Amino acid sequence: MNSANESAVFWEKHYAGMDARWGTKPNPVLTALLADLAPAPGTSLDLGCGHGGDALWLAAQGWDVTAVDVSQTALDRVAAGAAATGVTDRIHTRRHDLAETFPDGTFDLVTATYFHSPIAMAREHVLRRAAEAVAPGGLLIVIEHASTAPWSWQAGQDIRYPTPDDVIASLRLDDTWRVERGDAPQRTATGPEGRTATVTDNIIAVRRTS
């Protein structure tokens, strides 16, 4: 099985076995960032959208959202959520294994929220491609794990997480970009079974100025 098929099989099984209500609320870090950095809606690209919490919230705020995932089950649930909340005209689901194919076009906002996978992939390459998809004046926002939650598939492993500076350096941005935020705050996270733990996230927001 090649990596693309392995990724598709893993994530399809993951979402097919998950409560469809999980992951349908927006990430509060993202909503706060956009209130400060992008108060006016435009076009957006949500990479690894899952059940669509961020994508559905963005559409409700007036954004025109392309929601991408490798799992058709996840995308079907996003489409159902869009229909239930009256934002079908502003949600466009697209199936991609982002290590293999990427949506066409440029966007005012590109987000990669917890874009991690136990299946090996060229993550830095995908994030650089994400930066290329940002329109002038637009934002790339990456919110990612910087510690391991007890319910993670990586629990118990000795993992070195990159710092925000590491992530920004890996994007290979030129002087047409400005860093709006790059830090690693802690928060209290709640897992799928209601467990809580203190975790650290990397929060990166960079703007293409021209």
Sum up the structure in keywords.
alpha/beta, globular, single chain, 8 strands, 8-stranded mixed sheet, 210 residues, 30% helix
Q: Can I get a quick summary?
A:
By secondary structure, this protein is α/β, with parallel strands linked by helices. The protein contains six helices and eight strands.
Q: Secondary-structure element sequence? A: HHEHEHEEHEHEEE
Could you describe the largest sheet, including whether it forms a barrel?
A: 8 strands, mixed
Gap from first CA to last CA: 42 Å
Q: How many β strands by DSSP? A: 8
The total count of helices amounts to 6
What does the secondary structure layout of this molecule look like, with pairings?
Blueprint: H1 3-16, H2 28-37, E1 43-47, H3 53-60, E2 64-69, H4 72-85, E3 91-95, E4 107-113, H5 123-132, E5 134-145, H6 164-170, E6 177-183, E7 186-190, E8 196-208
What does this structure look like?
By secondary structure, this protein is α/β, with parallel strands linked by helices. It has helices at 3-16, 28-37, 53-60, 72-85, 123-132, 164-170, and strands at residues 43-47, 64-69, 91-95, 107-113, 134-145, 177-183, 186-190, 196-208. Strands 1, 2, 3, 4, 5, 6, 7 and 8 form an eight-stranded mixed β-sheet that branches. The mean pLDDT is 91.
